[in-house]
UniProtKB/TrEMBL annotation:
Pathway connected to this protein: Cofactor biosynthesis; (R)-pantothenate biosynthesis; (R)-pantoate from 3-methyl-2-oxobutanoate: step 1/2
InterPro entries in alphabetical order: Pantoate_hydroxy_MeTrfase (IPR003700), Pyrv/PenolPyrv_kinase-like_dom (IPR015813), Pyrv_kinase-like_dom_sf (IPR040442)
GO biological process: methylation; pantothenate biosynthetic process
Name the record gives this protein: 3-methyl-2-oxobutanoate hydroxymethyltransferase
A Pfam family: Pantoate_transf
NCBIfam families membership: panB, PRK00311.1
Species of provenance: Algoriphagus ornithinivorans
Cofactor binding note: Binds 1 Mg(2+) ion per subunit.
Localization: Cytoplasm
Function according to Swiss-Prot or TrEMBL: Catalyzes the reversible reaction in which hydroxymethyl group from 5,10-methylenetetrahydrofolate is transferred onto alpha-ketoisovalerate to form ketopantoate.
Binding site for 3-methyl-2-oxobutanoate: 53-54, 92, 122
Organismal lineage: Bacteria, Pseudomonadati, Bacteroidota, Cytophagia, Cytophagales
Length: 273
């Protein structure tokens, strides 16, 4: 038995994810940022948990992903890792902790792996961050790429509109995907690009391609957990399918509790000592 496997549960590995692409089994991926949610989504059978820097929006209430720090990502990641028995845990390296300096990129990746116990890291970009990606991979840390709408460069673009609609940008994205594959990335996320381009990328690289707003012709799908649960407010892009209305469920529960406290219905005799 491998040192990190718990009884009777076969952990997801990069090797298993590669096999899934090869046999056409779609890969399921969701974000999680804390122990309680990660426990539930792992037990439900999700293949990959992403500790996304979307924690900056969803957990901390920032407008962008830029402010979240490496220490904060490690805090979220370690909470998730403690919950997980089967899923493969990937952690976003935050803005400013890998771009432009491959030694810092390696240091950031090693801190994440050592201090959280996660299984891989994710970085945004292609050719521009090639050295950082290679350096992290050379230390034996699996790297997931992220192309298309890359939220850490939001101020370069100014909007969250669909990416790579123009021929030149589409060509660069395809080249970037091939660069990431050549570097040795184990998978690539494609965010908010035309379905036809995502299909081309998934067919052009051997590694799994996981889409968010990238159409159906890719090897897997990812969503932000709080969006698909209907907890997030006022975020309804076309690519989001909402699987629950937890905002309503939670509001009802909170209102009922408040009512019971005010009415002195709670606690009753059997709830008291
Ligand atoms: N809650 C949440 N969900 C996400 O999917 C997510 C985050 N946060 N934070 C980090 C990034 C940012 N992402 C985004 C952000 C905006 C759109 C988007 O489509 N926004 C607008 C359209 C904007 C426009 O067309 O100019 C929308 O329709 O809601 C998509 C993905 C994905 N990530
Ligand atoms: C949207 C996904 C891919 C992400 O990077 C995040 O949640 O931070
Ligand atoms: Mg992210």
């Amino acid at each position: 038995m491998s040192v990190h496997s718990s009884a009777n549960i076969k952990r997801i590995t990069t090797h298993i994810l590669q096999e899934m692409k090869e046999r056409g089994e779609k890969i399921s991926m969701l974000t999680a940022y804390d122990f309680s949610m990660a426990t539930i989504v792992d037990a439900a059978g999700i293949d990959i948990i992403l500790v996304g820097d979307s924690a900056s929006n969803v957990m901390a209430g920032h407008e962008t992903t830029l402010p979240i720090t490496l220490d904060q990502m490690i805090y979220h990641a370690s909470s998730v890792v403690r919950a997980v028995k089967r899923s493969f845990v990937v952690v976003d390296i935050p803005f400013g902790n890998y771009q432009g300096n491959s030694s810092e990129a390696l240091r950031s990746a090693i801190r994440i792996m050592k201090e959280s116990g996660a299984h891989a890291v994710k970085v945004e970009g292609g050719a521009e961050i090639k050295e950082s990606v290679s350096r992290i991979l050379s230390a034996g840390v699996p790297v997931m790429g992220h192309l298309g709408l890359t939220p850490q460069s939001i101020y370069k673009f100014g909007t969250y509109t669909v990416r790579a609609k123009e021929e030149a940008e589409a060509k660069k994205l395809l080249e970037d995907a091939k660069i990431l594959e050549e570097c040795g990335c184990f998978a690539i996320v494609l965010e908010k690009i035309p379905a036809s381009l995502a299909k081309k990328v998934a067919e052009s690289v051997q590694i799994p391609v996981i889409g968010i707003g990238a159409g159906p012709h890719v090897d897997g799908q990812v969503l932000v957990m709080h969006d698909m649960l209907g907890i997030t407010q006022e975020f309804k892009p076309r690519f989001l399918r909402q699987y629950a209305d937890l905002q309503q469920v939670m509001t009802d529960a909170f209102k009922n509790y408040i009512r019971d406290v005010k009415n002195k219905d709670f606690p009753n005799k059997s709830e008291s000592y």
